[in-house]
Write a structure and sequence with these properties.
Radius of gyration: 34 Å
Largest sheet: 18 strands, antiparallel
Bound molecules: zinc ion
Structural class: mainly beta
Shape: flat
Length: about 650
């Protein structure tokens, strides 16, 4: 009983031999095989669906199809492709297919699949949107041939003299029109057709409004079209769509131009003055936000991309400075200290926000004097003195035009608090339409709060491009291999994203050693990241803190994942340590775990996966390879969180 894992190669040889032995019942009669391993096949191919191959020509609305002698039909048995191909012996609607095949063993009763126009797995990737391209690359049809016998010279005698090809897709011609006027053609450089499960991306050689797409048939699906037209995006959606394989469709679609906006998370100083909506969009300054969007404030300051301050469209409730100073300080937004309004009473008519779209915000807060000055300067104020810029009509125009905000008061005796105090006078700074002015801290003055935003993206918005980032306990994603900010707690490394907001996070430390038998007895969960996780009970986590949520995102708590999960994580984190048994971790992976966030590198003699192998064995990994170990051995555990 060694704790070291054994290479899979040794056991695979055993199982291969075992499999070979069971085939004794099924031995091929060698006398029926050609000595040179070459077969010849001749079969009549009939039209399928009333319009078989191939040379697609448009005649009215009918796609007619005929055989051409230049075409190739490929043959496979199971998933193994024969070398060589069959060729039509004459042009025409039906033809005799004939050719020489080798590279596979063909025997009596085998069922062969005939396919054109290409060998290999059927794929619809890389379409150009023309009939010629579909004919050459995507007009798949298949037929089945059962082998009656093989002659000594290698002639394949089919059970039936004629086979019928079946088209594997519909062909659809989309004509793209702008819904705005119902007539203007939209010349697209890309069209994506999605049926909810699969999507097909067509990239024409040059922009065009007529695009042909090969699409495998489906019934009653909602189809979404997304076209790229210049720098604009147009969309179209229709439910209850059915496409039948072998059929040809011509469809004119009236497409709607998508609302264009920048995301708050990508805000730069160029965006100052824009309207920020609740969905985290930046809409053009001094205009109404589109239907469906709710204006939240005016982008007043950007400290770095995705970080800054948003000025409110209304005042909050008036307060004394002493009250404001007692509120919670937040320092994680826009490089300043904000005093966060504590409750609905302080918010007045302002709606509370902790996120705008996927961008985290501070909720409404009173800012420093320097913050308000920067906002007023950025919004074009020309009013102020040596104490600093205050607001004017230029500032108020952003707040009121189009978005229904209330101007900051133009009453010359109406003061607004900042959070900044003046040590010399014992007073604190207020702004009003003339200048900045010191006032007694016990005076009740107006409040025009701001929202601090950025920098962190939330786990719920994680996509594959975020792999490697540090995941914090508050659900924020921080850049890979950097320290998390003060106040943040690093939980793990984003290792895999299965879809937006779903994936696996690799722990920064090992949990307690376990036997595989024990792990297998733990609760299974299949609710996260499309896999089965074995969740560590409380006493198995070692030094790891348990989590059921990171911020607002639910997580599985620490769990042992499948071999395929660990492999995907290691590949995503840049491991180059692979052999035929899979990919394990290397220094690239450990660099994510250790750099900046204080994690402990993986280095144990071996780690369990949740994947069973064979008999008394289950699959494990170390820094060298994937292998197997007896289930009763106690090995290390590097768990993951599913989200
Ligand atoms: Zn919006």
């Amino acid at each position: 009983m060694t704790k070291n894992i054994l290479s899979l190669a040794a056991l695979l040889i055993v199982s291969a031999t075992f499999v070979a032995c069971t085939n004794d019942d099924n031995i091929i009669d060698e006398t029926q095989q050609p000595a040179n391993g070459k077969y010849t096949m001749t079969i009549n191919a009939s039209k399928g669906d009333g319009a078989t191959t191939r040379a697609l020509t448009l005649s009215g609305k009918t796609l007619s199809a005929t055989w051409a002698t230049t075409e190739n039909v490929y043959v496979k048995k199971g998933s193994d492709w024969a070398t060589g191909s069959l060729n039509p012996q004459a042009d025409g609607a039906t033809a005799t297919l004939k050719g020489e095949l080798s590279g596979i063993t063909i025997a009596e009763n085998d069922v062969l699949t005939l396919q054109f126009p290409k060998s290999g797995d059927i794929t619809y990737d890389g379409q150009l949107g023309t009939l010629a391209d579909i004919e050459a690359n995507f007009d798949y049809a298949t037929a089945s041939v059962t082998v009656a016998s093989i002659s000594a010279s290698g002639n394949i005698n089919p059970e039936a003299a004629t086979t019928t090809f079946t088209n594997q897709q519909a062909i659809v011609k989309f004509t793209l029109i702008d819904k705005a006027d119902g007539t203007t053609s939209l010349s697209a450089t890309q069209l994506v057709v999605s049926d909810g499960t699969n999507s097909y991306t067509v990239t024409p050689a040059s922009a065009t409004s007529e695009i042909y797409v090969a699409i495998p048939g489906f019934s009653g699906q909602t189809v979404t079209l997304t076209a790229t037209v210049g720098t604009d995006t147009y969309t179209y959606e229709k439910s209850g769509v059915t496409f039948t394989n072998g059929q040809y469709y011509e469809i004119t679609v009236k497409m709607t131009k998508a609302v264009t906006y920048t995301l708050l998370s990508a805000a730069t100083t160029e965006d100052v003055g824009k309207v920020v909506c609740a969905a985290g969009h930046l809409h053009t300054a001094k205009t109404a936000v589109p239907a469906g969007c709710t204006a939240v404030g005016i982008l007043g300051k950007v400290t770095e991309t995705g970080c800054g301050l948003i000025l409110a469209l209304q005042d909050a409730t008036s307060q004394t400075w002493n009250t404001i100073n007692g509120w919670t300080s937040v320092t994680t937004y826009a490089g300043t200290t904000l005093k966060v309004l504590p409750d609905a009473a302080a918010h007045g008519s302002l709606t509370s926000y902790t996120t705008l779209g996927t961008t985290a915000v501070s909720d409404w807060a009173v800012a420093q004097k320097s913050d308000y000055e920067a906002i007023f300067t950025n919004l074009g104020s020309t009013t102020g003195d040596s104490d600093g810029k205050t607001y004017d009509a230029n500032v108020n125009a952003y707040i009121t035009t189009g978005v229904g905000g209330t101007a900051i008061s133009d009453d010359y005796y109406h003061y607004y608090w900042s959070t900044t105090e003046d040590d010399w006078s014992g007073k604190a700074w207020t702004f009003y339409p003339h200048f900045w002015r010191l006032d007694y801290k016990t005076t009740s003055n107006s409040v025009r709060p701001v929202l601090g935003f950025g920098p962190a993206k939330l786990l719920s918005a994680a996509t594959a491009s975020d792999v490697g980032k540090v995941v914090c306990a508050d659900g924020h994603l921080r850049d890979a291999k950097t320290a998390v900010p003060a106040g943040g707690t690093a939980v793990g490394i984003l290792g895999k994203v299965t879809e937006t907001g779903h994936g696996l996070i690799l722990a920064l430390q090992d949990a307690s050693n376990q036997t595989w038998t024990t792990i297998n007895g733990w609760t299974s969960t299949t609710d996260y990241a499309s896999t089965t996780l074995k969740v560590l009970p409380d006493d198995a986590r070692g030094s790891l803190t348990g989590y059921t949520a990171l911020g607002a995102t639910a997580v599985s708590n620490w769990a042992v994942a499948q071999k395929s999960d660990y492999e995907a994580i290691f590949i995503n984190l840049g491991s180059t340590n692979s052999d035929s048994n899979g990919t394990t971790y290397d220094g690239n992976v450990n660099a994510y775990i250790t750099t900046g966030v204080g994690g402990t590198a993986m280095s144990a003699p071996s780690y369990w996966s949740a994947t069973e192998f064979y008999g008394v064995n289950a699959l494990a990994f170390n820094s060298v390879l994937w292998g197997y170990s007896e289930k009763t051995n106690s090995l290390s555990v590097r768990p993951v969180l599913g989200f």
